[in-house]
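Morning!

This is the sequence you dropped in the shared folder:
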Amino acid sequence: MQKEECFYLGKIVSKYSFKGEVLVKIDTDSPEIYENMESVFVSLGNNLVPFFIDKCRLHKSTLLRIDFEEVKTESDADRIMGSLLYLPLSFLPKLTGTQFYYHEIIGYTVIDDVHGNIGIITGVNDTTSQALFEIEKGDKQILIPVRDELITKLDRKEKTIYVSTPEGLVDLYLD
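The structure's back. Tokens below.
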């Protein structure tokens, strides 16, 4: 399995018990849907290695407490500490309306209610405090906040996102 075929689920952040259980900080708004997983891919070096799960349950709000079949001691847990976890893209729940996954909208055309076609989404920068659409229009890059109130429509069939940007925002990039 290649990383391109998977989505990032979370990161192993600490050991939970001397029996090898670990806590995983997951990146989701709905942690409960991952409570009964049977396996995950663990990033070790440049490889995704399948790990099978004996028991998986929620721990507090955004942590999963996982007991892996292959990890039964503290030293086993130490070997995977800090590793990133992935699941195949096919495991993602389908979204409707204006909800989307960041990887899903790469290549979508962005239509602004004032400026019309303002370019193609080349990425989403979620390393800042506010996630941003990275849009290319010719040789210019336009950054627009990923905010529910700015997205008026999402057309998956036409691969288009309609937005209503604040006055002057797009002009900053196009002028």
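Headline: Residues 14 and 145 are 33 Å apart (CA to CA).

More detail when I'm at my desk.
O.
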